[in-house]
From TrEMBL:
Recorded superkingdom: Eukaryota
InterPro entries attached to this UniProt entry: His_Pase_superF_clade-1, His_PPase_superfam, PGM_Phosphatase
GO MF annotation terms: phosphatase activity
Taxonomic lineage of the native organism: Eukaryota, Fungi, Dikarya, Ascomycota, Pezizomycotina
Pfam families reported for this sequence: His_Phos_1
First and last residue of the signal peptide: none
Entries under Gene3D superfamilies matching the protein: Phosphoglycerate mutase-like
Protein name: Phosphoglycerate mutase-like protein
Gene Ontology terms: cellular component: cytoplasm
Native source species: Aulographum hederae CBS 113979
Amino acid sequence: MSDTTTDTADSDVPETKTLYLIRHGAGTHDETHDFSIHDPELTETGRQQAAYLGETFPHLSSIDLICASPLRRTLQTALIAFSPLLPPTGTKKILATPRGQEASAKPANTGSDLDILRAEFGTESVDWHICAHHPDFNSKRGLFATNPIALDHRAKELRMLLRERPERNIVLVAHGHFLHYLTSMMREDGEQEGGMWVNAEWRAYGYDSGEGGEEARLVEREESWRRRGARGPSWAVGSAGEGMK
């Protein structure tokens, strides 16, 4: 499984590692509601959202690793928001992370081929080695299938892979639907819990009880849910019934 070489809200949760999970800025499909657009780019609004994220994100100086789903809108969000950390001013690269791609197989949620992405985004600021290790990353089959069992498995693998990384403060720019799988906020009937992620929203998570157990379970940090006005970890803002009990 390891691609590291090849590829709580509660105060008692140890602060050993923090994952800053971010939904991408607004894409063309978000504004047109047309999911037949293949791998859409950010709109001008989405670019502004990404820029504002970069201006207001309070943990920029502590970030050790930037990961992003290898779709245009997530890569663009990461490139804009975290530009101070990337060449030519910084030394970090965005790690294109295919396990972080969106959940469905609609064209808007299906990535482009690696050679196209490399030509568009280059290699100075993006590390493509995991995508190269999984040349079928945009096939929506196998590891990247879209049924709930496969999505749960992919989310668990990604949590475990990020837990294995030596970096302590990790950013992942991903997608609203998949982030519910990653944070274990999907019901058995397929309904999402914990409230929707708005474009360019970030939340901070740690591993439950430090390591997260066999499932590498994540728990939202208290500073994260309090900042967004929620009543508890992974609760919807203003909700009286969603989220972790």
